[in-house]
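During data preparation, a discrete fold description was generated, and the record follows.
___
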Amino acid sequence: MAPKREPLTLEDREDISRGLAKGLDNKDIAASIGRDESVVSREIGRHGGREAYRAWKADTAARESRKRDKERKIDAGPELRERVTADLKKGWSPEEISGRLVYERRRGETDMSVSPETIYAWIYAQPKGELARAGIVLRTGREQRKPRGRKKTGAKIVGMRSIDDRPAEAGGRQVPGHWEGDLIIGKGGKSAMGTLVERVSRYLCPNASGFKAKRLRTGPVPGCTV
């Protein structure tokens, strides 16, 4: 299967963080999330390196960077800005503007192109009231766009804490007594499997049979005596 080409998600970055915590190399981390090794290497290097990488910080920085790039594209091109502004004043949606430019580009009538997301990012980066003063009123009437993306499904882990919250002494696997816990919840939250791994010895305590997801989410893994 070819590696995915879309931007990394927060879930991907959490998997990268977990892989680093387990001491996996970049190649293995990349394989686990279906990405090219170079993508993972750049991601880690860009956001603190193997020792300082934090998923939520990396995701926040990446989103801010994409937002700035989208805002700059329209502002940096006077012709594109004039075209987008004129079409918005006509009541066109960002999707219609983008689609029309694609059509015209294929016909050789323009060399401009812009995605709907870029137009939305530019619109909502404007100071409050600026659109109305320019005679632009979006069909939705909203001042902020509803988030789009993958809908989260499945059972939730009550009281879940990020791996980034672990103490510094647990990061290097030098001090015994620190455990990694993982929980896999089945369809509809009707079944679950919990595991505990001691970080220094790698001693494993798995448990899957006879326990419901609710019990495993709210207490220790039964049957594991340490």
